[in-house]
Amino acid sequence: MPRSAAKIRKFLHLLPRAGIILVLLAAPVLAVPSLRADPGAIIEAPAPKKTGMGLVLLVSLRRG
């Protein structure tokens, strides 16, 4: 087999693997615009409950 045919065969053998890696790396980048288009897809942390302990601690520290 000539050298050029061996190089072409080696390149064609590596092409599917390179394509899979490229798709895995590009998937998050391509998913961002679709998430920005849907306003219901925003995930937020729940707001912390306000217990008022900050004021109690502030008053107790000022008295002491």
Helix content: over 70%
- As a whole number of angstroms, the C-alpha radius of gyration is 29 Å
How would a textbook summarize the main sheet?
none
Note the total helix count: 2
Instruction: Give the helix/strand class.
Output: mainly alpha
> Could you spell the SSE succession in H and E letters?
HH
The chain-level mean pLDDT equals 78
Content of β-strand: under 5%
The number of distinct β-strands equals 0
Distance between the termini: 92 Å
The low-confidence runs, each spanning 5 or more residues with pLDDT under 50, are none
Task: Please state the overall shape, judged from the principal axes of the Cα atoms.
Answer: rod-shaped
Feature tags:
64 residues, mainly alpha, 72% helix
Account of the protein in words:
- This protein is an all-alpha fold and 64 residues long.
- The protein is 72% helix and 0% strand.
- It has two helices and no strands.
- It is rod-shaped, with a radius of gyration of 29 Å.
- The model has no long low-confidence stretch (mean pLDDT 78).
